[in-house]
Amino acid sequence: MASNSRARVFDTHLVLEDGIGQIETANYRIEAAGLEISPEAKDGIARVKVSGSQRIVVAAYQGEVRVATRNNVLVAKLEPGKELTFESQAAGPSVIKVSGCLTRTNGKLILVDKTTGVKIELRGSGLEKEVGNQVEVGGTADATAPSAPGTSQIVYVNNLKRIAKGGCSGNAPAAAAAAAGGLSGAAIGAIVGGVAVTGSLVGLAVVHALPGQSQSQPATSR
After folding, report:
1. Which CATH architecture fits 95-192?
2. The whole model's pTM is what?
Protein backbone atom coordinates (compact mmCIF):
# COMPACT_ATOMS: atom_id res chain seq x y z
CA MET A 1 0.00 0.00 0.00
CA ALA A 2 1.10 3.56 -0.67
CA SER A 3 1.22 5.90 2.31
CA ASN A 4 -2.10 7.43 3.39
CA SER A 5 -4.07 4.66 1.64
CA ARG A 6 -7.01 2.89 3.23
CA ALA A 7 -8.20 -0.69 2.68
CA ARG A 8 -9.94 -3.64 4.31
CA VAL A 9 -7.92 -6.86 4.16
CA PHE A 10 -9.45 -10.35 3.86
CA ASP A 11 -8.05 -13.85 3.29
CA THR A 12 -8.71 -13.85 -0.46
CA HIS A 13 -8.82 -10.17 -1.36
CA LEU A 14 -8.23 -6.57 -0.37
CA VAL A 15 -10.96 -3.93 -0.66
CA LEU A 16 -9.21 -0.68 -1.59
CA GLU A 17 -11.18 2.32 -0.36
CA ASP A 18 -8.71 5.14 -0.92
CA GLY A 19 -5.20 5.61 -2.27
CA ILE A 20 -3.02 3.06 -4.09
CA GLY A 21 -2.62 -0.67 -3.58
CA GLN A 22 -0.42 -3.33 -5.18
CA ILE A 23 -0.61 -7.13 -5.36
CA GLU A 24 2.09 -9.50 -6.54
CA THR A 25 0.35 -12.87 -6.83
CA ALA A 26 -2.41 -14.39 -8.95
CA ASN A 27 -3.88 -16.00 -5.81
CA TYR A 28 -5.06 -12.69 -4.39
CA ARG A 29 -7.06 -9.79 -5.78
CA ILE A 30 -7.92 -6.15 -5.20
CA GLU A 31 -11.55 -5.07 -5.21
CA ALA A 32 -12.40 -1.43 -5.91
CA ALA A 33 -15.42 0.42 -7.33
CA GLY A 34 -17.22 -2.87 -8.00
CA LEU A 35 -14.34 -4.39 -9.98
CA GLU A 36 -11.96 -7.24 -9.22
CA ILE A 37 -8.33 -6.89 -10.28
CA SER A 38 -5.69 -9.64 -10.27
CA PRO A 39 -2.48 -10.55 -12.10
CA GLU A 40 -2.81 -13.34 -14.66
CA ALA A 41 0.52 -14.98 -13.77
CA LYS A 42 1.94 -15.93 -10.37
CA ASP A 43 4.76 -13.41 -10.75
CA GLY A 44 2.54 -10.62 -12.09
CA ILE A 45 2.15 -7.25 -10.34
CA ALA A 46 -1.06 -5.21 -10.45
CA ARG A 47 -1.49 -1.67 -9.15
CA VAL A 48 -4.78 0.07 -8.43
CA LYS A 49 -5.50 3.71 -7.60
CA VAL A 50 -8.88 4.77 -6.26
CA SER A 51 -9.79 8.19 -7.65
CA GLY A 52 -13.38 8.33 -6.35
CA SER A 53 -16.25 6.07 -5.38
CA GLN A 54 -16.86 5.09 -9.02
CA ARG A 55 -13.47 5.66 -10.69
CA ILE A 56 -10.21 3.70 -10.46
CA VAL A 57 -6.95 3.43 -12.38
CA VAL A 58 -5.48 -0.04 -12.96
CA ALA A 59 -1.91 -0.64 -14.11
CA ALA A 60 -0.13 -3.81 -15.21
CA TYR A 61 3.28 -3.13 -13.64
CA GLN A 62 4.51 -6.64 -14.43
CA GLY A 63 2.79 -9.31 -16.51
CA GLU A 64 -0.81 -9.22 -17.72
CA VAL A 65 -3.58 -8.02 -15.39
CA ARG A 66 -7.23 -9.05 -15.48
CA VAL A 67 -10.09 -6.67 -14.62
CA ALA A 68 -13.59 -8.12 -14.20
CA THR A 69 -16.93 -7.30 -12.62
CA ARG A 70 -18.18 -9.12 -9.55
CA ASN A 71 -20.30 -11.20 -11.94
CA ASN A 72 -17.07 -12.32 -13.63
CA VAL A 73 -17.62 -10.34 -16.83
CA LEU A 74 -14.19 -9.57 -18.26
CA VAL A 75 -13.86 -5.79 -18.60
CA ALA A 76 -10.22 -5.55 -19.66
CA LYS A 77 -7.01 -7.50 -20.02
CA LEU A 78 -4.03 -5.19 -19.61
CA GLU A 79 -0.70 -5.98 -21.21
CA PRO A 80 2.51 -5.28 -19.23
CA GLY A 81 3.19 -1.56 -18.90
CA LYS A 82 -0.38 -0.51 -19.73
CA GLU A 83 -2.84 1.34 -17.52
CA LEU A 84 -6.50 2.25 -17.91
CA THR A 85 -9.14 4.27 -16.10
CA PHE A 86 -12.44 2.57 -15.22
CA GLU A 87 -15.66 4.35 -14.24
CA SER A 88 -19.05 2.78 -13.51
CA GLN A 89 -21.88 3.85 -15.80
CA ALA A 90 -25.56 4.33 -14.96
CA ALA A 91 -26.54 2.70 -18.27
CA GLY A 92 -26.07 -0.79 -16.83
CA PRO A 93 -23.88 -3.83 -17.56
CA SER A 94 -25.67 -4.86 -20.78
CA VAL A 95 -24.69 -1.69 -22.69
CA ILE A 96 -21.57 -2.22 -24.81
CA LYS A 97 -19.41 0.14 -26.87
CA VAL A 98 -16.22 -1.24 -28.39
CA SER A 99 -13.99 -0.60 -31.40
CA GLY A 100 -11.30 -2.52 -33.23
CA CYS A 101 -10.70 -4.90 -36.12
CA LEU A 102 -13.66 -7.02 -37.19
CA THR A 103 -12.56 -10.50 -38.23
CA ARG A 104 -14.15 -13.86 -38.98
CA THR A 105 -12.86 -16.89 -37.06
CA ASN A 106 -14.38 -20.37 -37.45
CA GLY A 107 -17.53 -18.82 -38.84
CA LYS A 108 -17.90 -16.32 -35.98
CA LEU A 109 -17.59 -12.54 -36.23
CA ILE A 110 -15.02 -11.41 -33.65
CA LEU A 111 -13.85 -8.00 -32.51
CA VAL A 112 -10.90 -7.40 -30.17
CA ASP A 113 -11.44 -4.04 -28.53
CA LYS A 114 -8.28 -1.95 -28.90
CA THR A 115 -8.71 -0.18 -25.57
CA THR A 116 -9.46 -3.10 -23.27
CA GLY A 117 -8.05 -6.08 -25.18
CA VAL A 118 -11.36 -7.92 -24.64
CA LYS A 119 -12.43 -10.30 -27.41
CA ILE A 120 -16.16 -10.15 -28.20
CA GLU A 121 -18.41 -12.18 -30.50
CA LEU A 122 -20.66 -9.86 -32.55
CA ARG A 123 -24.05 -10.62 -34.04
CA GLY A 124 -26.31 -8.40 -36.13
CA SER A 125 -27.00 -7.06 -39.58
CA GLY A 126 -24.43 -5.23 -41.70
CA LEU A 127 -21.43 -6.85 -40.03
CA GLU A 128 -20.39 -9.21 -42.83
CA LYS A 129 -19.51 -6.42 -45.25
CA GLU A 130 -17.21 -4.83 -42.65
CA VAL A 131 -15.04 -7.90 -42.04
CA GLY A 132 -11.40 -6.82 -42.29
CA ASN A 133 -12.20 -3.20 -41.44
CA GLN A 134 -11.76 -1.17 -38.26
CA VAL A 135 -15.17 -0.44 -36.77
CA GLU A 136 -16.89 0.98 -33.74
CA VAL A 137 -20.01 -0.81 -32.52
CA GLY A 138 -22.64 -0.28 -29.86
CA GLY A 139 -25.06 -2.90 -28.70
CA THR A 140 -26.44 -5.12 -25.98
CA ALA A 141 -24.66 -7.98 -24.27
CA ASP A 142 -26.35 -11.36 -24.20
CA ALA A 143 -26.44 -13.29 -20.94
CA THR A 144 -25.74 -16.49 -22.88
CA ALA A 145 -22.17 -17.75 -22.64
CA PRO A 146 -20.29 -17.12 -25.92
CA SER A 147 -19.44 -20.13 -28.10
CA ALA A 148 -16.35 -18.67 -29.80
CA PRO A 149 -13.11 -19.66 -28.00
CA GLY A 150 -11.48 -16.84 -26.06
CA THR A 151 -14.45 -14.47 -26.26
CA SER A 152 -15.97 -12.98 -23.12
CA GLN A 153 -19.43 -11.97 -24.36
CA ILE A 154 -21.91 -12.12 -27.21
CA VAL A 155 -23.04 -8.65 -28.28
CA TYR A 156 -26.03 -7.88 -30.49
CA VAL A 157 -25.03 -4.80 -32.47
CA ASN A 158 -27.41 -1.84 -32.71
CA ASN A 159 -24.97 0.75 -34.06
CA LEU A 160 -22.12 0.17 -36.47
CA LYS A 161 -19.63 2.74 -37.74
CA ARG A 162 -16.60 2.15 -39.93
CA ILE A 163 -13.51 3.89 -38.56
CA ALA A 164 -11.10 2.87 -41.30
CA LYS A 165 -11.11 0.53 -44.26
CA GLY A 166 -8.74 -2.45 -44.04
CA GLY A 167 -5.65 -2.59 -41.90
CA CYS A 168 -6.75 -5.76 -40.14
CA SER A 169 -4.72 -8.42 -41.90
CA GLY A 170 -2.41 -10.62 -39.85
CA ASN A 171 -2.67 -10.19 -36.10
CA ALA A 172 -6.00 -8.43 -35.51
CA PRO A 173 -5.26 -7.13 -31.97
CA ALA A 174 -1.91 -5.71 -33.09
CA ALA A 175 -3.48 -4.07 -36.13
CA ALA A 176 -6.20 -2.55 -33.97
CA ALA A 177 -3.66 -1.17 -31.53
CA ALA A 178 -1.65 0.39 -34.34
CA ALA A 179 -4.77 1.96 -35.80
CA ALA A 180 -5.68 3.49 -32.45
CA GLY A 181 -2.89 6.04 -32.75
CA GLY A 182 -4.75 7.94 -35.44
CA LEU A 183 -8.18 7.91 -33.80
CA SER A 184 -9.87 10.45 -31.58
CA GLY A 185 -10.16 10.00 -27.83
CA ALA A 186 -13.88 9.33 -28.19
CA ALA A 187 -13.24 6.59 -30.73
CA ILE A 188 -10.80 4.64 -28.60
CA GLY A 189 -12.90 4.61 -25.41
CA ALA A 190 -14.97 1.56 -24.54
CA ILE A 191 -17.93 0.55 -22.41
CA VAL A 192 -17.85 -3.07 -21.25
CA GLY A 193 -19.81 -4.65 -18.41
CA GLY A 194 -21.36 -1.31 -17.46
CA VAL A 195 -17.93 0.28 -17.06
CA ALA A 196 -16.46 3.09 -19.16
CA VAL A 197 -12.79 2.52 -19.98
CA THR A 198 -10.30 5.12 -21.20
CA GLY A 199 -6.54 5.52 -21.37
CA SER A 200 -4.69 6.90 -18.36
CA LEU A 201 -1.64 9.13 -17.91
CA VAL A 202 -1.23 8.63 -14.16
CA GLY A 203 2.02 6.70 -14.57
CA LEU A 204 1.30 3.80 -12.19
CA ALA A 205 2.63 1.31 -14.73
CA VAL A 206 6.13 2.80 -14.89
CA VAL A 207 6.92 4.32 -11.48
CA HIS A 208 9.34 2.11 -9.51
CA ALA A 209 7.94 2.81 -6.06
CA LEU A 210 4.50 3.75 -4.81
CA PRO A 211 4.01 7.31 -3.47
CA GLY A 212 5.38 7.68 0.03
CA GLN A 213 7.81 4.76 -0.36
CA SER A 214 11.47 4.73 -1.32
CA GLN A 215 12.48 2.75 -4.40
CA SER A 216 14.37 0.31 -2.19
CA GLN A 217 11.34 -0.35 0.02
CA PRO A 218 8.90 -2.88 -1.49
CA ALA A 219 5.20 -2.23 -1.35
CA THR A 220 3.11 -4.28 1.06
CA SER A 221 1.38 -6.97 -0.93
CA ARG A 222 -0.18 -10.43 -0.81
Report:
1. Beta Barrel (2.40)
2. 0.84
